Amino acid sequence: MSNNIKGVLWGLLSAALFTLASALAKIAVIEYHVLQILFFRQCFVFASALPVLLKTFPHGFTTKHPLSHALRLSGAFVALSCGIWAVAVLPLTTATTLTFAKIFFVAMLASLFLGETTTKTRMIGIILGFLGVLIVMRPGFDGLASLYALIPLASALGAAVAVVCIRKLSQTESTATLLGYQAIFIGLMAGLPMFWLWKTPDLFGLAVLITMALLSTLAQWVGIKSLRLGEASLVSSTEYFSLLYAAALGLLLFSELPDTFTLIGAALIIFSALYMMQKEYRQKAAPKPT
Description:
Elements: H1 3-28, H2 34-56, H3 66-89, H4 92-98, H5 101-113, H6 120-137, H7 150-169, H8 175-191, H9 194-197, H10 203-229, H11 232-235, H12 242-254, H13 260-285
């Protein structure tokens, strides 16, 4: 099994965990501010990286790419805060679908800044996935008719910037270093407004926030592992499967029943991802000329 295939499999797990965390954030945002949810989440991310950071301190924070870290952190803050905001104002399936724009942003940025080759197979897969997204959104109706649709698109662009930076940084930086920088600096960005925005959670709210934070932390570790193994433009295609997860959770938790267009679009999206995985596997398994 090639590293790209391994990266895709880890990416599928990361997508599932992130979608479940988003569903819990949609519940939490009813009572708590977006930045409080983000602050709570980042505290757990930092705690998960703390043992390794303490063991490797001060070398764990040593980096030769401070600008890449700054760009990655800026993109991650936009992605995370807008991602929580999006599920607050849009149905979970719609918000998830619109974030698929990250796939195209990643492919473009990876080609420009990482030198990754966008093969014919990947282009076909991306186009098929995009058509599936259009079927789900039905331009002119639900999602695109609202200005709120710009929120998950902003999240998608920020996430794409972060993904490309992580792909570059993960070749020289440890996972704990990547998460440590993010937990500290994004935690500070979200934490400073807590002097005005903090609301003490009740028992139910605390349980939701803790579960969401734990799932998000695990998803980040798994996501970084997937990007360390596979190319950014290929691994990011696993995000398409988030639509299935979001549709199931939307029905279970929020009584959001997917319609026929959503089911058709989801089928096309899944096919596109499987198509790329199969072609990638065949290319790696094919005997090389001697």
